User: Fold these one by one.
Assistant:
Number 1:
Amino acid sequence: MSLRDNIRDFFHGAAYGQYERELRLRAAELNDLFLLLCYMEVVGLPNPATLYLLDIYPYLLEQFHLWHKRMGMDKSPLGSLPCC
Amino acid sequence: MRALIEKKVLFFGGKGGVGKTTSASAMALAASKAGKRVLLVSTDPAHSTSDIFERAIGPEPVALLPNLHGLEIDGDYESKRYVTEVKERIRNIFGHHIQKEASKQIDLAASMPGAEEMALFDRIGGLVRGEDDRFDLIIFDTAPTGHTLRLIRMPELMEAWIRALSRSRQAMLGIEQDDKTDPVMLSLSGRLDHLREFRARLLSPRVCAFILVLVAERLPIEETARAIDQLDDAGVTIGGLVINRVLPETSPDPFLRSRHEQELVYLDEIDRRFKSRARVRVPQLPSDVHGVPTLERLAELLLTEKALSS
């Protein structure tokens, strides 16, 4: 990497780093909301679409894992949703 | 009522015990005789189609007569089948570990209250969308009114729900990645397309009509009036009214004569309150309707223009 690239990256980070952090936080929040909507019955809310969400459960497993890690929990806090 | 057999989907509804199954079966028979390939579907958990045709009918279409198949939808069977299908689908996409975990969740979700009703709804949706191309006309013999009206409203509710979910997903993907390739998004949009098509066909006057069956008595009249309001509200076409078990006009028996006079009051009320709807009066038959011969007589009655009083 040349000095020119380093300088460019430095300014890029200085200018956009803050926004990127914000965006990542926002994305994570939206993702949590989506997870909640999909797993409503796990927290005791009736979900009319449960059956239609079965196909996407496997995709959500990974996101669920990321969620409980992000929330500072090493293991899944929900008995009905085993993770690690 | 003859025009009705040109539609793709007919629902027969009404209060319990007024003769929905008999009317639906007679209509199915009439349509099959007119050359349509008909599937008669019972959605009432207390199936009685098999009693009328005097043979066992299961959760898969069974040939009853030439051009006529019967099907008794079973919530438990449908939810099991649905779950098996989903598991089959994920088998090819995911590794063993995820599959095992997901399987646990899928079984749990499928045992939730409402899952059977939901699977039933999905099956009805598939039939209404014309998934099974062996049939020209699908006739639903439904459970009593309240239950059915809920079912008719369901595509709209589910559509709103799934749309909310895909919006939420889209908002997130908009930030992180492309939503054209996201499998979750694809699955949700597929669902949404199906629900839209289901609703569009349900509301199309060319495709679908609802026939209300009643007898000339106080409570069925009130329930019919309510059902008409709700169906109008939902935008479903009302094909007409079948007024079942009308007593013969002249009878030497004083008891029957007095019953008939009472009935005339209600028949007048029906004519007055539902004058804008097509109506067919089906007379009380001397014996119970079961077996094909009696049903044939009823089928003729349903389709002859003479029976039409408007």
Number 2:
Amino acid sequence: MSRRALDEKQQATVDAAQVAVQSRGYWATVLVRIGEDKVTLVCGAVLLVIVLSVVFADWIALADPYKADMMKRLKPIGTPGYPLGGDEMGRDMLTRLLYGGRLSLFMGVTPVVTALGIGGLLGLVAGFLGGRVNMLIMRAMDVFYAFPSVLLAVAISGALGAGVGNAILSLTLVFIPPLTRVTESVTTQIKNLDYVEAARASGAGNLTIIRVHVLSNVLGPVFIYATSLISVSIILASGLSFLGLGTEPPEPEWGLMLNTLRQSIYVNPWVAALPGLMIFMTSLTFNLLSDGIRSAMDVRL
Amino acid sequence: MFAYLIRRILYIIPISFGVTVLVFALVHMAPGDPLSAVVPPDAPEEMVQELKKAYGFDKPLPIQYATWLGRILVGDLGVSIARSRYVTDELAVAVPNTFILAAGGTLLGFTLGAFFGGVAGYFQGRWIDKLATGIAITGISVPHYWLAIVLVIIFSVEMNVLPSIGMGPGGSTAWQWNAENLKHLVLPVITLAVIPMGIITRTVRATVAEILNQEFVQALHAKGLLNQQVLMHVIKNAAPTMLSVMGLQLGYLLGGSILVETVFQWPGTGLLLNSAIFERDLPLLQGTILILAMFFVLLNFLVDIVQTAIDPRMARG
């Protein structure tokens, strides 16, 4: 009825689902297409480098991320021994950036994964059962849609108070409604296809139909949609830390580092911009990668 | 159209009710004493009880909710605990300031986005399309609070041509149309425009490309219309989608300007929200979130109505 239409990305997800059902050897085709797409491959590689260097920061980093040195405060980029300069406490910037990525990536990815589980389940139930259950679930989601996502995230973590756990919880609540809505749309569409009808006619129960026929076709497109949310989630997670609602100093985290270095932009401006550059690069590669995978999945193109 | 209008208005009521429940629940999930912001820890117990009574915090939650709902329905959002001023008075100053930012950001983002998206959709697959699509995805991916800082570094620190904080000279909070205030507007508006620019570019590109593939465009060409005349038809067909995206973006910017307002110390709702959070000022927090959410609900409603007025097929969807 008056429910708002799906946005561009959500519609693309639903469309891709329809195509996914129709062709044979589909996933093989998708892999071949990704292999031919240079931008996507490069982004995948860059992202892999970021993730690996963050995970293996213990081996790569030359310094201690917490060790302050008053003599090295706000050293410019390229100082010997401080390849990316020093921060406001004289800590090695490169080391801080490597370690900082751990929390930033964790805070960005966890909400989407959790919301994928919860929202996916709600959407599947709403789409498959339809009727009153659908109405109940989808109207509840509409209430969350009455808040712009940044406001909802800030409101929830602001009310709960600062902390990594609260920030992750608030972002999870932000991403459950869109994931529910997309899963519901895809499920409704697939439920009405002929082969589901055929399965039902041959005596398959609801659970069997969901497990064998619906889930396999819903998962792919919804998963791709979820990857497109990760970039937003990383920006928002670091944004919450930036506001002082995520982690606390001296913990390295890109958003928080950006905030504490903000006071020093008149002393050494470009060192202050580095943590944000990391957030930007991560979010950009996630976006391009997700776009690449989606267009590889869309056989009509 | 009329039936749709009624249906759409009736839909606002349960949503608004849900919004009030959510806002109330949110603020009362908060750990700690709502009065901790003003009451010193060593205050005598009777005084704390007295204050709780004065603010109504001593009653059970459902009663507090009902009282609060009754008050907001007559436009009373209560008194800010930390500032001892009416929440409505605080909002009366902050909302117009945020609106100036959001409107500026949307307009700039929309103009650029419509241009880039139109060009990209028209020249699909060519280098100019790739350039525009690249700009769009960069706009969507950039953390705007970082962009704000980079802009400050370039234009305030390095070049020293634009102010980095505040809305006007001397930390004024009332907007005036003069050169000094406009200078303060430049950086925040550019920052806010980037995300809508990216989103609108993508939407317009997709819409234009889709319309160009329809048969009526071929018919117009066959009829002998010039390219520019055909373009006018395409724009007319793309208008409803563009309008709806623009309306939503305005809503996102109104509600989501907290990060940008914090960087630029812009005295709007975002900065108000920020101080309400850190001063644990529940009435102010509640009031600000509620008003921003209601603006968003109202904007969605207006977008739907305008869209339906332009394209009556929407009413059936």
